[in-house]
Amino acid sequence: MLFLHIKLHFVQxxxxxxxxxxxxxxxxxxxxxxxxxxxxxENPEFAFPLIISNKPDAFVHTRAKQLDIPSFTFSREDFMExxxxxxxxxxxxxxxxxLAGFLLKIPQTLILAYPQKIINIHPALLPKHxxxxxxxxxxxxxxxxVGDTESGITIHYVNNNYDEGNIxxxxxxxxxxxxSPEMIADxxxxxxxxxxxxxxxELWGE
Length: 206
Hints:
- The chain is α/β, with parallel strands linked by helices.
- The protein has one domain: 3-Layer(aba) Sandwich (Rossmann fold), CATH 3.40.50.
- About 35% of the residues lie in helices and about 20% in strands.
- The longest helix has 24 residues, at about 180-205.
């Protein structure tokens, strides 16, 4: 009697994992937000379902439209209270929040809902030149005025106080005596565009 031995090959499929869904918060131009979205455009591990701003006329809404991402505006009062924003974040199943040039303080409601899941980028080397009112060109002007020989970026977790959350990443750039605040800003922006997406990928990627 002839026995036919058939070898069966079972193909093991790697389970499909859901992408990390990140909400981007921005108050102004939104260049960092756009840079982040473009960096991850071919990475299925990350998704950016919405952008939130506190200014209806911020250029980030134009960028969001070009990127085909819904954008929403909430008032200062909404951010102080937090519940309306939290409801929207839950509706979109948001896992993490990235502040990409966002100027308002994050309410306790969101901090409690997203522990160690909210990060911010600051255009200086914290703890120097941080705190309430220190943002954008104000930071670079201060760096120039006090004669710092270097500046840079700080990426940190968000807590109840401005710019005081645990630091995740810092990198520096030289500041020359002849550098204007605008020149310092250009150097810092280059660091933001290069490193912010990479830190997000390192922090929340597989």
